[in-house]
Amino acid sequence: MEFRVRDVMADQEAADFLESRNIFATPVVSIDGELIVGFRRERIDALLGLAG
Fold it and tell me: Residue 29's domain is classified under what CATH number?
């Protein structure tokens, strides 16, 4: 599985991206364009096809 980590404290572009979407909390996971705010394992698993 390919992934990219972006640190909003060190990456202003990443911070601006989230702020433009009124997201002011981390972590944020993006899967197929859906932004998941907070660690929502069940939603992440479902989007990755891992939900059983």
Answer: 3.40.30.10
Q: pTM score, two decimals?
A: 0.81
Number of structural domains the chain divides into: 1
| Residues 6 or more apart whose Cβ sits within 8 Å of residue 30 | 36
Range 39-42, long-range pairs (CB < 8 A, 24+ positions): none
For residue 24, the one-letter residue type is: F
| 34 bridge partner residues | 31
**pLDDT tens by residue, 3-46:** 999 999 999 999 999 999 999 999 999 999 999 999 999 999 99
Q: Which residue has the tokens 């993006």?
A: 30
Rounded Cα gap, residues 13 and 41, in angstroms: 26
